[in-house]
Amino acid sequence: MGASSTIRTFECLSMAIFVSINQFSTIGLIIAVKSIARYDKISEDSQFAEYYLIGTLFSVLMTIIIYIILFKL
To answer: Domain coordinates of the chain in residue numbers?
Structure first.
């Protein structure tokens, strides 16, 4: 398991935990930290920036949808 998949797993788990305790603003903090870590690449490569944004939004959306399906229905 590579570093990026480990980070993605921790990101999804932490988002699910924060959604479960109604700390939605903390998800913004996770996204901000992730963006700061990738700032150099995002600012230099517009194609990567688009890929990064789509991937991040997809990850957040899937985490919330899966949480709702598993724990709210």
So the answer is: 3-71
